[in-house]
């Protein structure tokens, strides 16, 4: 099953935020979405997740328009981890992750041991099993982020959409999370600010600039010094290692060096 945007335009008030974007997420791939602040990554992710409806164009899951599908069907297929999602509810970590099972529950299909197993597995996946009894409000920013991801994993999604998932995470958990996403049997899309992470973990990278999709391709195709200069306004050297993985070294002017 694929996730696809066809000529999508989205406006906030009178301002066009997303301009005629067409993008097909390939089954099984890990697609990175990169672009400067305000380029439209979050807006595009929420359209891909079916949370926002395009003003023009189509957002399709398995060839069907998402706004015509029920919330339950969307939630059984798409796990979406938004930026800065918070709650004031008095929930434990386990209860927060259990919310991911709601799309599967009904009067005829009440909570079962299978739901317990999915919640336990999701907590293990994000390294939060030993904090399952802790209250949400007592968690650090990084721990909350890992719980959000566990909640999305508990949905057993076919598509995992992550908006800047490594925010708040220390370097071990950043790498652990991206390794986990790669290892999962899901199609994943993540908005990422760290371009070296995108280069290391993503199969393809899509680049947003001023609301437009300006490039899509493999990390080696996309992460060129010319694109980094054009889109991000930075000077960088891009090296490839023996495995063909790109590594970006940014050039910092003398004035910005410590002690200058
Ligand atoms: N509901 C809204 N109303 C008005 N403007 C909006 C709305 N949502 C987004 N925008 C504007 O649209 C532009 C794109 O925002 P978006 O959050 O999609 O960018 P982004 O690439 O995710 O940015 P960042 O990297 O800073 O998170 C920004 O200029 C933002 O201010």
From TrEMBL:
A Pfam family recorded for this sequence: ABC_tran
InterPro entries: AAA+_ATPase (IPR003593), ABC_transporter-like_ATP-bd (IPR003439), P-loop_NTPase (IPR027417)
Gene3D superfamilies linked to this entry: P-loop containing nucleotide triphosphate hydrolases
SUPFAM superfamilies: P-loop containing nucleoside triphosphate hydrolases (SSF52540)
Presence of keyword ATP-binding: yes
Keyword terms of this UniProt record: ATP-binding, Nucleotide-binding, Transport
ABC transporter domain residues: 3-235
Gene Ontology molecular function terms on file: ATP binding; ATP hydrolysis activity
Family assignment from sequence similarity: Belongs to the ABC transporter superfamily.
Protein name: Histidinol phosphatase
UniProt source species: Thalassospira profundimaris
Organism taxonomic ancestry: Bacteria, Pseudomonadati, Pseudomonadota, Alphaproteobacteria, Rhodospirillales
């Amino acid at each position: 099953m694929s996730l696809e945007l066809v000529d999508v335009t989205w406006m906030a008030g009178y301002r066009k935020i997303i301009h005629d974007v067409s993008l097909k997420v390939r089954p099984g791939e890990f697609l990175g979405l990169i672009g400067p602040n305000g380029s439209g990554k979050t807006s595009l992710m929420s359209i891909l997740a079916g949370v926002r409806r395009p003003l023009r164009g189509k957002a399709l899951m398995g060839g069907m328009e998402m706004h015509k599908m029920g919330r339950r069907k969307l939630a059984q297929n798409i796990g979406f981890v938004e930026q800065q999602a918070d709650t004031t509810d008095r929930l434990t970590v386990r209860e927060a992750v259990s919310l991911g099972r709601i799309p599967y529950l009904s009067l005829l299909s009440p909570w079962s041991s299978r739901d317990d197993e999915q919640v336990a597995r999701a907590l293990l996946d994000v390294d939060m099993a030993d904090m399952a009894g802790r209250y949400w409000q007592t968690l650090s920013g990084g721990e909350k982020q890992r719980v959000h991801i566990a909640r999305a994993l508990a949905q057993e999604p076919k598509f995992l959409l992550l908006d800047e998932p490594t925010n708040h995470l220390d370097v071990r958990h950043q790498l652990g999370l991206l390794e986990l996403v790669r290892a999962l049997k899901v199609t994943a899309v993540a908005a990422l600010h760290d371009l070296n992470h995108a280069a290391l973990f993503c199969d393809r990278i899509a680049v947003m600039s001023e609301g437009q999709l300006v490039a899509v391709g493999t990390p080696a195709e996309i992460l060129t010094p010319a694109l980094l200069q054009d889109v991000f306004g930075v000077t960088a050297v891009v090296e490839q290692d023996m495995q063909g993985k790109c590594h970006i070294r940014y050039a910092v002017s003398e004035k910005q060096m410590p002690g200058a």
